[in-house]
Write a structure and sequence with these properties.
single chain; about 575 residues; mainly alpha; 22 helices; 2 strands; globular
C-alpha cells in the first residue's frame, strides 16, 4: 500500500489561522458541560428516578463514539468544521446528497445552542433582577386579601396575591403569535437574550485565538463552581439515597407516580436518552478546529480526549448530586422542568448564604455564555468549511483579518434571533426547538459513526496520526443504530411533531446544495476539497465499500421507523 502524506497548508489571506494547540480547543470546548443546564430539568421530568442513569449511560456512549471522530479528523489537517465535514467526504463516493446532509444536520443541531442558551441565561437574569415573590398562608398580603374577600380559600388567595405581585417586566410582550406547534414572542427574555448574543458575537469576531483566551478564563470560573456544586452536597451528607429508588420509569411524564418497565415506560426512557445525547455528545466540537491547530497530528486526539474526560466527570457528577438532593418531587417543580430555576436550585444545594447563592447563579450565567461561545465558534466553522468544500453557498467562505468566519457568524446570528423568539415563548416551544435540532444531531452522528469504517475501506492507505482500535470503530457503528432508536422512539416524548419537523428540516439541504453545486459551481466540486486525501474528483468513481453504505442507510431508516411505530406513550 502506498502512503499519501499531506503537508500542512499555511493560511493564506482569507483563510483560518493556525493559532492554537489542543489546549486552546479544550478551552473552547469547555462550554459543553454547561449544556447540562439546558435539559437537566426536562430529563428529570420525563424519566424520574432514572435521570442520573440516563445521563451516565449517554455520556459513556458519547465518549466511546468520540474515538471514531478522533481518527477521521486526523485525516484532514487542513479542514475546519468538525466531524461532519470529515465524515461527509466518506459518503461522497456513494451519494452527492448524503454527504452535505451530514454538514447541514450538524449545523442545525449545534446552532440553536445560541438561542436556547441565551433564553435560559435571560431567564436567570430576570430571576435575579425581577424575582417573583413567594407567599404563604401567613403572609400579610394573603391575610389581608382573605379579610377583604370573605370566603376565599388560602390557596386562591395565594394565587391571586402572587399574580398581582409579578413584576411587570416579566409579563411585558411587544409582540406574540402562534405558528403551528410553537409560539413566538418578543418579550423581555428575547431582548436580554439578543443583547447577550451580540456580546458573544463581538468576542468571536477576534478569531479563534482571542476566543480561546477569553474562554480559558471564563471556563475556569465555570468549571470550578460546577465541580463545587457536584461535590459539596456529597461531602456534607446532603445526598438522600432514597431519591434513587425505585429504579423504574414514571407512569406519565411530569407526574411523580412510578410506572413500570412496559412499552410506555421504555418510551419515556428512550426520550430521555434522545435529548441527553444533544448535550453529552457535544464535546466532539473539539475537533472543529483542525485547520487552526499548530500541530493537528497530535492536537486533534488530545483535544477531543481531554474534553471528553472533563464532560465525563461533570455530566455524571452534577445530575447525580442534583437528584440526590432534590428528589423526585423537587425535580418535577415547574421552575426546574422549564429550566428557569435550575441555577437557583444548584446554588441552594451548596448553601453559604445569600452572597454565595448570588455568586453561583452569576457563574451559572457565565456557564451558559461559555457554551454559547462554544456553539458559535463550532457552528460557524461548519458553515465556513461547508462553503469552502462546495456544500453550502459561496458567501459563507469569507473570513476577516483575524481569521474569523464572519459571514457564517452573521448567518448564525440572524437564524438564532428568529429561534430565540420561539424559545422565549414557553417551555413547550423551547423543547420543540431542542428536539428538532437533536433530530439533526442524531442523523449527523449516524452518518459519521459509519463514516469511520467507510474511510477505513476506501482510504485505508492514508496515514492516520491516531488510529482507533477496530473494536471501538465497531462499537461506534453499533451505537449509530442505537441512536436511531432514540430518535424514532424518543423525539415524540418532547413533541408529537418533533421527529417529522426534524426530518423536514434535514431535507432542506437538498435545494441549498443544488443551488451551490449545480448553479454556482456548474456540477463540479472545488479541486481542493479532496486534497487532504491526495485524491482527485475522478477518484470518487472507485467505491471499495460496494453496496454496504447503501444497506447501512436503508437499515438506519428502517430502525428509526420501527422504533417510532413500536414505542408509544
Amino acid at each position: 500500500m502506498s502512503t499519501i502524506t499531506t503537508a500542512l497548508a499555511q493560511p493564506a489571506e482569507g483563510e483560518l489561522h493556525r493559532n492554537i494547540d489542543w489546549r486552546g480547543a479544550f478551552w473552547v470546548a469547555s462550554g459543553v458541560p454547561a449544556l447540562v443546564l439546558f435539559s437537566i430539568g426536562g430529563i428529570a421530568g420525563t424519566t424520574g428516578t432514572l435521570a442520573f442513569a440516563i445521563w451516565t449511560a449517554s455520556m459513556i456512549m458519547g465518549f466511546l463514539q468520540s474515538f471514531t471522530y478522533a481518527e477521521i479528523a486526523g485525516l484532514f489537517p487542513n479542514k475546519s468544521g468538525g466531524a461532519s465535514v470529515y465524515g461527509a467526504t466518506a459518503w461522497l463516493r456513494y451519494s452527492k446528497f448524503i454527504a452535505p446532509l451530514s454538514v447541514w444536520c450538524n449545523w442545525f443541531a449545534w446552532s440553536p445552542v445560541l438561542s436556547l442558551g441565551c433564553s435560559i441565561a435571560a431567564a436567570y437574569i430576570l430571576n435575579a433582577l425581577a424575582p417573583v415573590p413567594l407567599f404563604s398562608e401567613t403572609s400579610p398580603e394573603v391575610v389581608a386579601y382573605i379579610a377583604a374577600h370573605a370566603g376565599t380559600s388560602a390557596a386562591d388567595a395565594i394565587a391571586a396575591v402572587g399574580a398581582a405581585a409579578i413584576p411587570a417586566i416579566r409579563t411585558w410582550t411587544l409582540f406574540s403569535h402562534t405558528l403551528g406547534p410553537v409560539s413566538f414572542t418578543l418579550n423581555a427574555t428575547f431582548f436580554i437574550g439578543a443583547v447577550l448574543m451580540l456580546i458573544i458575537f463581538s468576542i468571536q469576531h477576534r478569531g479563534i485565538l482571542g476566543t480561546a483566551n477569553v474562554q480559558k478564563y471564563i471556563g475556569l470560573l465555570v468549571i470550578i463552581p460546577m465541580l463545587i456544586v457536584g461535590v459539596v452536597p456529597i461531602v456534607t451528607g446532603q445526598i438522600n439515597w432514597a431519591n434513587f429508588s425505585p429504579l423504574v420509569p414514571l407512569a406519565a411524564a411530569y407526574a411523580p407516580e412510578p410506572g413500570a418497565w412496559n412499552i410506555a415506560g421504555w418510551t419515556l426512557v428512550l426520550g430521555g436518552m434522545f435529548i441527553a445525547a444533544w448535550s453529552t455528545y457535544g464535546f466532539e466540537t473539539a475537533v472543529c478546529y483542525t485547520s487552526e491547530f499548530k500541530n493537528p497530528g497530535t492536537d486533534t486526539f488530545k483535544a477531543i480526549f481531554y474534553s471528553g474526560l472533563l464532560c465525563m466527570l461533570l455530566f455524571i457528577l452534577v445530575p447525580f448530586t442534583f437528584q440526590g438532593v432534590l428528589g423526585l418531587n423537587g425535580m418535577l417543580a415547574t421552575p426546574i422542568v422549564d429550566g428557569s430555576g435550575v441555577a437557583d436550585a444548584l446554588a441552594g444545594m451548596v448553601g453559604g448564604g445569600a452572597l454565595i447563592h448570588s455568586l453561583l447563579v452569576m457563574l451559572m450565567i457565565l456557564a451558559l455564555v461559555l457554551c454559547i461561545m462554544t456553539a458559535m465558534a463550532g457552528s460557524s466553522r461548519t458553515l465556513y468549511q461547508g462553503s469552502v468544500d462546495g456544500w453550502l453557498p459561496r458567501y459563507l467562505s469569507h473570513v476577516n483579518e483575524h481569521g474569523a468566519p464572519t459571514r457564517a457568524m452573521w448567518t448564525d446570528l440572524v437564524f438564532n434571533l428568529i429561534v430565540l423568539a420561539i424559545a422565549s415563548a414557553d417551555a413547550t416551544s423551547f423543547f420543540f426547538i431542542l428536539a428538532v435540532s437533536n433530530c439533526g444531531y442524531i442523523i449527523f452522528n449516524f452518518l459519521n459513526l459509519n463514516a469511520g469504517w467507510i474511510h477505513r475501506i476506501d482510504n485505508g492507505h492514508i496515514t492516520r496520526p491516531w488510529r482507533a482500535p477496530s473494536w471501538l470503530l465497531g462499537v461506534g457503528a453499533i451505537f449509530a443504530y442505537v441512536n436511531m432508536i432514540f430518535m424514532g422512539a424518543g423525539a415524540k416524548v418532547w413533541n408529537p411533531m418533533a421527529l417529522w419537523a426534524g426530518l423536514i428540516t434535514a431535507a432542506l439541504i437538498i435545494p441549498v446544495f443544488c443551488f451551490r453545486h449545480y448553479i454556482q459551481d456548474g456540477g463540479k466540486f472545488p479541486d481542493h476539497m479532496l486534497a487532504d486525501l491526495g485524491m482527485k474528483s475522478s477518484d470518487l468513481a472507485v467505491k471499495k465499500a460496494g453496496i454496504l453504505p447503501y444497506l447501512t442507510l436503508a437499515a438506519g431508516v428502517v430502525v428509526m421507523l420501527l422504533a417510532n411505530w413500536f414505542f408509544v406513550i
